[in-house]
Design goal:
Ferritin, 72% helix, 10 helices
Length: 237
């Protein structure tokens, strides 16, 4: 079922937006945010009912949604949301997938995290291919202002917070050209994959922590993927 849900999303995005990269990325990033909203909604429900409290999980998932928001803002600045039809499709798909993931997360959190792992793997592969095919052109264009502020000049606490496999303040992307922007976005997707894999580990409830939490460096997980391993995983699937 998880692969069917991801497959439908990939089929629609790849089919409709084959030759329109920025609208394609706009739709992808609009939908990519909502699973994190779904996770937080259910976690807030559990805390309100007094069943389960995991403040670190809320922090990390909010930071992930904050990261995806800035991907979305970058695509909007590049004109990806200019056509009203693209906005309707993106928001409709986001609404449907939100409720699907809410139900999935209540029934089986591991499957909900696996869903997002596959979505982020697809995003990584999509951006990686785009970078390879358009490297020269992208290097001739400046980085969008929103990207410069998020990755270089702004408050980087939230940027560090979603990267549970990194030591805070370790990753600082160069942000001069549009090629740098898409490279950073692609690498963000690799970090999301690592976090989703970590959330599925049997001992995640005990060992999964915020990078800025009381324990040093978020995860001391049994599984932390390197970027190379993420790339190999995406290629294999």
């Amino acid at each position: 079922m998880i692969r069917v849900l991801v497959g439908i999303l990939v089929f629609v995005i790849n089919g409709i937006y084959r030759d329109r990269p920025y609208p394609r990325f706009y739709v992808l990033e609009t939908v990519a945010r909502v699973p994190y909203f779904a996770y937080m909604s259910v976690l807030h429900l559990y805390e309100t009912l007094g069943w389960w409290r995991r403040a670190d999980w809320l922090k990390v998932h909010f930071a992930e949604s904050w990261n995806e928001l800035h991907h979305l803002l970058i695509m909007e600045e590049l004109g990806g949301s200019a056509f009203w039809g693209d906005r309707i499709l993106a928001r409709s798909a986001a609404l449907i997938y939100y409720w699907i993931v809410v139900g999935l997360y209540i029934v089986t959190p591991k499957s909900a995290y696996h869903f997002m792992e596959l979505v982020e793997e697809h995003a990584y592969a999509t951006y990686d291919k785009f970078l390879t095919e358009n490297e020269d052109a992208l290097k001739q264009q400046p980085a969008p202002a929103i990207a410069v502020n998020y990755y270089r000049d702004g408050d980087l606490y939230m940027f560090d917070e979603f990267q549970t496999g990194q030591v805070p303040e370790h990753r600082r992307p160069v942000m001069d050209t549009l090629f740098d922007t898409f490279t950073a976005i692609r690498d963000d997707e690799a970090e999301h994959v690592k976090t989703m894999v970590a959330c599925q580990q049997p001992d995640a409830q005990a060992n999964f922590h915020s990078p800025h939490g009381s324990l040093t460096n978020a995860l001391e997980p049994k599984v932390v993927l390197t970027n190379t391993e993420v790339e190999e995983k995406v290629t294999a699937e």
